[in-house]
Design goal:
Layout lengths: L10 E5 L6 H12 L2 E4 H11 L2 H11 L6 H13 L7 E4 L5 H13 L6 E6 L2 H9 L1 E4 L5 E3 L18 E2 L6 H25 L2 E5 L4 H12 L4
Parallel strand pairs: 1-3, 1-4, 2-3, 4-8
Antiparallel strand pairs: 5-6, 5-7
Helix pairs in contact: 1-8, 2-3, 4-5, 6-7
The structure holds adenosine monophosphate (AMP).
C-alpha cells in the first residue's frame, strides 16, 4: 500500500483532456494530502453562480466551449498560489491550458521560489471521454462529480454526499464536448511539449476506474518510487 506515504512533490499540475478524470483525481489527492485543489473551471463556475461581472462574462465563453482570456486566468491563479492555503502544496486542475499560461506560471513559480513540481499527464482516448462526459453529473451544492454509469445516480437522485441537486453541466452537451476536445488538442499540445522539454512530466494511464488510476498516481508520486 502506498496510501498516506509522503508525496515527493507537493506542487502539482494535473494535465489532461476534459472528462479525462483529472478533476476527480485532483480532488481526492488534495483531500488526502492536505493540498489546495485549484480548479480554474470550478472557480469560474462559482463566480458565474455568484453573478459577478467576471463570472458572467466567463459563463458565456464556457458555455460556448471556448477559453477564457489568458490574462484573466493568470491573474486568478497568481492570486490563489500566493495565498496561505496553497503554501503547503497544491494541485492545479485545468491550468495551464495554453503556452502563454504555462510561461506565465513559470514566472509565478519563480516569484514564489517554487522549484520542484511535477506535471501529471492523463492519457485517455476520445471515445472514452465522450462516454464519460455524457454520463457525468455534478452536485450543484458541493461540486462533487458522479457518473450515471458507475455511481447509479440520475438527475432525479439527490447528491449521495450532501443531498444537493445533481445537474448536468451546460458544457457537457455532446457538440460542446467535441468542440472542447478540439480546443484541447490545438492549444495544449504546445503546453505538453513545453513541460516535456523541462523534464517534469509523469504519465498516468487514465483509462481505468477511479481507484486504479488513484493507486497509480499515488505510486508515481510517493517517495518509494
Ligand atoms: P473545466 O472545468 O476545467 O473543464 O473548465 C471549464 C471551462 O472553463 C473551459 O471550457 C473554459 O471555458 C474555462 N476555463 C477553465 N480553465 C481555463 C483556463 N486555464 N484557460 C482558459 N479557460 C479556462
Amino acid at each position: 500500500m502506498t496510501k498516506n506515504r509522503p508525496l515527493r512533490w507537493r506542487q502539482l499540475i494535473f494535465f489532461g483532456p476534459p472528462g479525462g478524470g483529472k478533476g476527480t483525481q485532483a480532488r481526492l489527492l488534495a483531500e488526502e494530502y492536505g493540498l489546495r485543489h485549484v480548479s480554474t473551471g470550478d472557480m469560474l463556475r462559482d463566480a458565474a453562480a455568484r453573478g459577478t461581472e467576471r463570472g458572467l462574462k466567463a459563463k458565456a465563453i464556457m458555455d460556448a466551449g471556448r477559453l477564457v482570456p489568458d490574462a484573466v486566468m493568470v491573474g486568478i491563479v497568481r492570486e490563489v498560489l500566493q495565498s496561505p492555503e496553497a503554501a503547503d502544496g497544491f494541485v492545479l486542475d485545468g491550468f495551464p491550458r495554453t503556452l502563454p499560461q504555462a510561461e506565465a506560471l513559470s514566472a509565478i513559480f519563480h516569484d514564489l521560489a517554487i522549484r520542484t513540481y511535477r506535471v501529471v499527464v492523463f492519457d485517455v482516448d476520445d471515445d472514452d471521454i465522450v462516454r464519460r462526459l455524457s454520463n457525468r453529473l455534478v452536485c450543484s451544492r458541493n461540486g462533487t462529480v458522479f457518473s450515471k454509469e458507475t455511481d447509479g445516480v440520475t438527475l432525479a437522485t439527490p447528491c449521495p454526499d450532501c443531498g444537493g441537486t445533481l445537474v448536468q453541466r451546460d458544457d457537457d452537451r455532446e457538440e460542446t464536448v467535441r468542440h472542447r476536445l478540439q480546443v484541447y488538442q490545438l492549444t495544449t499540445t504546445p503546453v505538453l511539449h513545453y513541460y516535456e522539454a523541462l523534464g517534469v512530466v509523469v504519465k498516468v494511464d487514465g483509462s481505468g476506474g477511479v481507484d486504479a488510476v488513484s493507486r497509480q498516481i499515488r505510486l508515481i508520486l510517493s517517495e518509494e518510487t
